[in-house]
């Protein structure tokens, strides 16, 4: 019998840009495509956010013709978990062996400095669990410190939304900082795919990161491979 692992999918609560009228939030496919991989193994899961409650969804991510988005966004259980997310402060890390940070630009505001998020990541990782993140969700890892005082991403192979991609979506003036630059400043070994917006992931032991929305499924697949096939 395969062991049953439980996953925690963490999403942003932040919906506003400094100057643009359009709203940000979760980039929907970064949750649905990852979860679609877990669903294939019937893995139990919860959805959490820094404040708990409703997860705002970036409107541009719903408009796309995406059968996986359709499938899970209209699934009553998944939708209920999105609308009633757990608060990070209330999470018991020992319940989870897989921790996954979704992206969407909102994460750049409420992930990097959240202490509950940092504690949770440290404890799941140090208990032998998998930590994964995609796109702007990788910002969650910037300030995670391990028990020995070192940064989780120090000298680790990671990826995340690139400067070029930020420029191409014309949001480089809106974000509070450059994710690519911040990862490099924290001494992470940052890399990216040759062509923007195509799937690209990095794996460094129990740390799996994806560069952009199209990388979410690949991240999910790799997490399961590491958990079940090693």
From TrEMBL:
GO terms for biological process: methylglyoxal catabolic process to D-lactate via S-lactoyl-glutathione. It comes from the Bacteria. It holds the Pfam family DJ-1_PfpI. Keywords: Glutamine amidotransferase, Lyase, Stress response, Transferase. The keyword Nucleotide-binding does not apply. SUPFAM superfamilies: Class I glutamine amidotransferase-like. GO terms for cellular component: cytoplasm. GO terms for molecular function: glyoxalase III activity; transferase activity. Transmembrane segments: none annotated. Residues 86-226 form the DJ-1/PfpI domain. Belongs to the peptidase C56 family. HSP31-like subfamily. This is Type 1 glutamine amidotransferase domain-containing protein.
